[in-house]
Amino acid sequence: MAGPFQQFCLRVVTAPARRRFKAPARARAWTLASEDGTSLAAWELSPAGTPRGVVVLGHGYRDDRRQLLPFAQTLAGAGFTAVVFDFRAHGASAGERITIGHDEARDVRALLAWARTQGLPVGYLGFSMGAASYLLSGIEADVAVLDSPYDTLENAFAARLGLLGLGRWTPSVREASRALLDVDPATQRPVDRVSSLRSPTLVLFAPRDRWLPARVRERFRSQAAPSVEVTALASGGHSDHFDARWSERALGWFEARLGVLSPRQP
Question: Please, what sign has the CA dihedral across residues 149, 152, 153, 154?
Fold first, then answer.
């Protein structure tokens, strides 16, 4: 059995990351219920004219919707409706714990289901936990950009415990995490999903990402379906690579693939 310190460390890793902040100009604030009823807070940014599609953006672990807001504004400027939201237990959303992808997959499914009701082509961009949650959700947008997804939940936990100085990932810690999350981390494997993706999907990794070593990137590349392009960025670490070149690459992926699709019936 995991000791008191190990259990404390797990509670730290899964503790909510609450924040409150004002909506930016020209953003519509609204809430949406996730699959289990958890209230999720979101901002919607609309283009000046008729939308070419709707893109949902999912942020990373212990961050919030502001992380991807600049790119959401870029998408709106390019003619897309963009929705940034707070995952459960993040930002202004409800929720009692962070599961780093398992329960957050429910949030992805809820947002994409809402997006489908708009009668437009649907895109998704996720970063880190937001990318892994998309893969764990079991559904797909018409076009996706997945930045820095982890390969397995066990490795994600192990990296956070180790790099934060909170201990090692041991069999007893694994059992404690399973009791805390109501799921076995060994069964949560986003990397296994990339072999069955059908929608055009761009997977990006930064070269100096301390959370995701080279072997993780190679696992995604070796298992990627024909519809998936796995690309290494030229520079940057885990969360400091959102520069103009990154924005141009991600926007180009959506414009070339999502912006040319025909509207669909709700």
Answer: negative
d(CA 45, CA 155): 35
For every residue of 71-132, DSSP letters joined together read HHHHHHHTT-EEEEEPPTTEET---S---TTTTHHHHHHHHHHHHHTTTS-EEEEEETHHHH
pLDDT on residue 264: 63
Please give the model's pTM, rounded to 2 decimal places: 0.95
Q: Which long-range contacts (CB under 8 A, 24 or more apart) does 112-115 make?
A: 112/56, 112/137, 112/139, 112/141, 114/32, 115/54, 115/56, 115/83, 115/141
Domains and CATH numbers, the chain: 4-257 (3.40.50.1820)
With CA atoms as reference, report the closest residue to 32 among 118, 153, 149. 118
Q: Helices 153-163 and 4-14: crossing angle, nearest 10°?
A: 110
Cβ contact 176:7 at 8 Å: yes
The rounded distance, in Å, linking the Cα atoms of 16 and 2 is 22
In the three-class reduction of DSSP (H, G, I as helix; E, B as strand; rest coil), residue 145 is classed as strand
Q: 3-class SS at 221?
A: helix
Which residues are within 8 A (CB) of 187 and not within 5 positions of it... i.e. 6 or more apart? Answer: none
- Tell me how many helices (H) and strands (E) the chain has: 8, 10
pLDDT band at 242, cuts 50/70/90? very high
Among the listed residues 241, 255, 254, the one whose alpha carbon sits nearest the alpha carbon of residue 202? 254
Decide if pLDDT at 265 tops 80: no
Q: How many other CB atoms sit within 10 Å of the CB of residue 21? A: 10
CB 16 within 8 A of CB 90: yes
